[in-house]
Amino acid sequence: MKNHCFLLADFLGRASAFSPHTSRRHELLKSPHRTAVCGPPPSSLHAPKFAYGGSTTQLNAAALSPAIHIALVSSSVGILAAYHIRLFQKELNSDTKTWRQYQADTREDWARYVRETEGWLYAIQSLRNASTAQSFLATTVLSLLTLITGRMWDILRSSTQKWERRLLTVQLASISITMLFSSYQFIQGVRLMTHAGFMFPVNGDNTKVDNIMRRTQNCQWLGLRWMYISLAPISWVVGGPRALFVVACLLLQFFRSIDKEPESLGYEDFQALNI
In this prediction, what percent of the chain has a pLDDT beyond 70? Predict the structure, then answer.
């Protein structure tokens, strides 16, 4: 369409060369205040663009300034960090047990039960199922990280603006750190459960295996927690700092619901027995 407009303008310009009003038309064409008939003005063809969240948009008044961007990102990180600091302080200084502590106590009691009853076959089957599940989670997290890194690396190489390249680098680093930590914790859980499987029949009276099973639960909890937290930087890439702040608030409510003291799961009897 633009080519047709330019051809039409060229044709009219040539035809007007023989008109007595040619000089007047030339003045109008050279005027900086003329209005374009076809297509956007030339200045808009070279307007600065900003790649944000994987999409290129025109800079306008609605774009966030770097100060607001940093403020939203810092607030999101602060929300998640403050919650987990308070959670760990609550576990250390309070008698109320969270879901993570309840699961860790359950695994330690399970290891003690296996040693007392010598249920080695039952223990190996349970450990095999748990190891398979955590291996699948670790593989899934690494596969997703590979896909995300490949896509963001292509965008990073094609970027020309300095601020944009720095932003994409920070976003890619935050996604990689959270997902790699998640996969690492899952793998460590598998390693500890494999070690516990060899220790059960050999050192039946050794209580170290009980502590190992508690550590496997901590590894699984950390793996899932880092996997959930990785949704925050992913939303930052997709929707910008506003989406990051919203997802951080949603994750805060989600964590509060799953970290509270378990109910209707036999936890009251568990506490009453003082096991």
Answer: 71
| 39-94 confidence digits (pLDDT tens) | 444 444 444 443 444 443 333 334 678 889 999 999 999 999 999 999 988 888 87
**DSSP bridge partners of 58:** 49
Q: How far apart are CA 81 and CA 74, in angstroms?
A: 10
Per residue in 87-134, pLDDT (tens digit) is 988 888 877 788 888 888 899 999 888 888 888 888 889 999 999 999
Q: What are the tokens at 108?
A: 């330690």
Contact at 8 Å (CB) between 152 and 125? no
Q: Provide the token pair at 205.
A: 């009276």
Residue 18 is classified by DSSP as G
Local structure of 264: helix, strand or coil:
coil
User: Chain centroid to CA 74: how far?
Assistant: 15
pLDDT in tens, 167-180: 899 999 999 999 99
Q: What was the pLDDT predicted at 54?
A: 43
Count other C-beta atoms under 10 Å from residue 127's C-beta. 22
113-116 LR contacts (CB < 8 Å, sep 24+) = 114/200, 115/200, 115/204, 115/205, 115/209, 115/210
CB–CB of 55/238 below 8 Å?
A: no
